[in-house]
Every structure is written in C-alpha cells, then in structure tokens.
Amino acid sequence: MAAKVELEKCTGCGNCAEVCPVDAITVNEKAKIDADTCVDCGTCVDECPENAISMED
Fold first, then answer.
1. 26-55 pLDDT, tens digit each
2. Domain holding 42: CATH number?
3. What is the span of the domain harbouring residue 36?
4. pLDDT tens, position by position, 3-25
5. pLDDT at 56
6. pTM confidence score
7. CA-CA distances (angstroms) from residue 6 to 2, 25, 27, 29, 51?
C-alpha cells in the first residue's frame, strides 16, 4: 500500500512533504509521492488540509 495524491484536490501547500519522515514527497505545483521510498505511515494523509492524499490498496 502506498499513499496516492489526487492531483485535482492538491493545492501544493507542502504540508505533506514537511511531515514525511522518509522524504518521499516532493512538491512543485502539486505533491508527488515516490512509492519506492514511501513507508506507508499515513502521516501525510493526516496532514493534508485538502484531503487530497489517501492510502492505496
């Protein structure tokens, strides 16, 4: 399972990248999560004010 960004909801605020413990998230205009680096902790899901991040099955 890896976190997934719904790009249409993402505002690029960067909150997710700031709290990611393994630096798996980069933000330019939108957040992008590196699935190979992501450890599925869910911290980014909880931090996103737009509910743009979810955990994939």
1. 999 999 999 999 999 999 999 999 999 999
2. 3.30.70.20
3. 3-55
4. 999 999 999 999 999 999 999 99
5. 76
6. 0.91
7. 13, 14, 13, 13, 9
Q: Which amino acid is at 42?
A: G
Residue 53's closest CA among 33, 34, 37? 33
Kindly provide the residue ranges of all beta strands, DSSP E only, lying in the chain, ordered along the sequence. 3-5, 25-27, 31-33, 53-55
- Residue positions counted in the chain: 57
Cβ contact 2:44 at 8 Å: no
pLDDT number for residue 1: 73
Number of domains in the chain: 1
